[in-house]
Amino acid sequence: MFKKDRWIEIIEVFNANPFRTFLTAFGVFWGIFILVVLLALTTGLRNGVSKDFGDFATNSMFMWGQGTSKPYKGLPKGRRVQFKLEDAAVLKDKLPQLKFVSPKGQLGGYNGANNVTRNEKTGAFTVSGDYPEYIEQQPMDITAGRFINYSDINEKRKGVVIGDGVVSSLFDVGEDPIGDYIKINGVNFMVIGTFLSPSSSGGNAEEEANTIYVPFTTFNQVFNRGDNVGWFAITAHDGTSITELKPRILEIMREQRTIDPTDERAIGNFDRSEAFGRVTGLFDILKFVGFFVGGLILASGMVGIINILLISVKERTNEIGVRRALGASPWNIRGQIIQESLTLTIISGMTGIAAGAGVIWLMNYALSQSGPVDNFANPSVNIFVVVIALIILIISGISAGLIPAVRATQMKPVDALKTE
């Protein structure tokens, strides 16, 4: 396998027609290169789209009340479903698999009418009434102060946590908002914390930056919401699928709010886990397409290697006849041909992997220079894929050399010597 004379002969075979050798090797190079780049692009798209989900727990769902589509127990069709604070306790009691059941209230919106003022500055912001555990469901970077705690909830404190968009709109550069006051619909609130909207929030980043968090109990009292809940953010414990729990959650809520058990429209919901699963499923398909396309191109390269070796065997018929007449065994001849195939395949394939790695480095460098790009981040290829590609190259190289190798040893030495 590592005899010097054999390697010299292999180099001479490749140099006999370098252009033909280059074109054959390029088929394998291009197949591996396309495979690596396609898988890197798929990973980049998966990372980018996954970041658009933000840091919100993917094993979560949102739930809100809508209008009933069926009359039930004397209540009319079209009745607006209103969740209550007690519903959270009922859900936690009946479904211990739930980690968080966060009641939420909402007021205004950053695209709506101005609802927040500070001195002469005004702005339109989303005001969200929340419980402390919401930061566990939607992690955020607290840049100063703190988030809401249960002392705020129990004492109904008028404290707010504001996003960086709110800070830049209501406060001057370098001005410390902590301890200062803003007015929401004419009511004074003290700023107890500021947060930076996560860059991974995608299209929701601007809205998140322009959000003001208020203790839920304070929110309901100040804005006369009673015990009403606008919507729930629900997260299941690790190891429990929120998608599997969702039918039971909706069933309990229909019982709580006296809704027809068959009324599918009365309660709206968004299953983040299910949506995330659909996205990852799409990228699994794209990954398969990458393997499939790369595999087809690689297969065409293997056919090229078979062809060049068959031609090489035909051109070297007399040489093979002489070697056989001098006592070379069939396995010695086959080993020579297979080694030629394996050498050409591995060299061209590893060059393709190296070129693909170079393109991936350039993509990441460009991203680092240009900043975050929507729906695309950190293109990369797992080292396991590279190992698999190397194994495929070795198997393909041996397989591609088998047909010419068998062909080389099928003819008798006397007939080979007669061939012109």
TrEMBL record:
Residue ranges of every copy of the ABC3 transporter permease C-terminal domain listed in the record: 292-413
Topology with respect to the bilayer: Multi-pass membrane protein
Record-given protein name: ABC transporter ATP-binding protein
An annotated Gene Ontology molecular function: ATP binding
Species this chain originates from: Patiriisocius marinus
Domain MacB-like periplasmic core residues, every copy: 21-249
Membership in a protein family: Belongs to the ABC-4 integral membrane protein family.
Keywords: ATP-binding, Cell membrane, Membrane, Nucleotide-binding, Transmembrane, Transmembrane helix
GO cellular component terms, semicolon-separated: plasma membrane
Classification via PANTHER family: ABC TRANSPORTER PERMEASE YTRF, MEMBRANE COMPONENT OF TRANSPORTER-RELATED
Transmembrane segments: 21-41, 288-313, 342-363, 383-403
Compartment list: Cell membrane
Entry-linked InterPro entries: ABC3_permease_C, MacB_PCD, Macrolide_Exporter_MacB
Source taxon at top rank: Bacteria
Main location: membrane
